[in-house]
Amino acid sequence: MELVSFVKDEEAVLAKKMERKLLTLSITSGVLFVGVGVLPGAPPIYEVWIGCSRDVDPRMIPTLVETTLYEEVRAGHKIRTQARMGSIRKE
Questions:
Q1: Which of 4, 20, 31, 57 has the most crowded CB, counting CB atoms within 10 A?
Q2: What predicted TM-score, i.e. pTM, was given to this entire model?
Q3: How many angstroms separate the Cα of 30 from the Cα of each of 2, 3, 14, 55, 85?
Q4: pLDDT by residue (tens digit) across 27-63?
Q5: What pairing do the DSSP bridges indicate for beta strands 45-52 and 78-84?
Q6: DSSP string, 24-79
Q7: What CATH number corresponds to the domain at position 13?
Q8: Over 80: is that where the pLDDT of 88 sits?
Q9: Does the residue 51 lie in any domain?
């Protein structure tokens, strides 16, 4: 039988809190969309996906995330950041 890991309620709440904090950044920061997921484990890893505008160097996004989520980083939460650039569909 395979062990299935679940995300704790407090971990899911923290992921949503991280999303809200990142979405409060000004549009001039280059952040277009945010997603935060949790990889269960000890300790859990919070995966942050950022869609950024082409005006921003995606290599700067991890620093932006760490600065914005300073309290969470300082509390010892493990955060992994991925920045993505793309096109917005126009209909």
A1: 31
A2: 0.86
A3: 42, 40, 23, 7, 10
A4: 889 999 999 999 998 899 999 999 998 888 999 999 9
A5: parallel
A6: TS-GGGTEEEEEEEEE-SSS-EEEEEEEE-TTS-GGGHHHHHHHHTHHHHHTT-EE
A7: 3.30.360.10
A8: no
A9: yes
Amino acid code (one letter) for 47: E
pLDDT at 4: 62
The pLDDT assigned to 86 comes to: 72
pLDDT confidence of 3, banded at 50, 70, 90? low
Residue 2 domain-assigned (yes or no): no
Amino acid (one-letter) located at 31: V
Domain, as residue range, for 46: 9-84
- Nearest C-alpha neighbor of 7 from the set 19, 76, 66, 15: 15
What would the two tokens of residue 28 be? 């001039």
- Structure tokens given for 3: 């062990």
